[in-house]
Amino acid sequence: MRRSGASGTTLTARWTYQNAQIVSERSEILNSTDTAVLEFHIAKPNGWPKGRYTVEILANDGLTGTREFEVR
Predict the structure, then answer these.
(1) Which residues, other chains included, contact 6 with Cβ-Cβ below 8 Å and sequence gap of 6+?
(2) Which pLDDT does position 4 carry in this prediction?
(3) Gap between the terminal Cα atoms of the chain
(4) Residues 6+ apart with CB under 8 A from 4
(5) Of 60, 1, 53, nearest to 29 (Cα)?
(6) How far is CA 15 from CA 6, 19, 33, 40, in A?
(7) In terms of pLDDT, which residue wins out, 6 or 10?
(8) pTM here?
(9) Burial level of 18, CB count in 10 A (0-12/13-18/19+)?
(10) Which CATH class is domain 2-71?
(11) Rg of the chain over CA atoms, in angstroms?
C-alpha cells in the first residue's frame, strides 16, 4: 500500500476467513509524513482452507479499504 500520511498513523491489515474468523492482524506505524510503502502479507506453508477471505486496511482504527478473494 502506498500512502502519504501523518507521522504516527497506525495502519492495520486484518485478514478474516468466511467474514468472521480473524486469520491474522498486523499493524505498522508510519514514521514519516512523506510517501511510504508498507507491505502486509500472510502465508501458510500447508495451504489455506477453501473459502472466502477478506482483508481490511485500517488507519488509526478507521476502515480505509477492503478486498475480498476466494481460495478454491
Answers:
(1) 30, 33
(2) 47
(3) 26
(4) 33, 34, 35, 36
(5) 60
(6) 24, 9, 26, 10
(7) 10
(8) 0.78
(9) exposed
(10) mainly beta
(11) 13
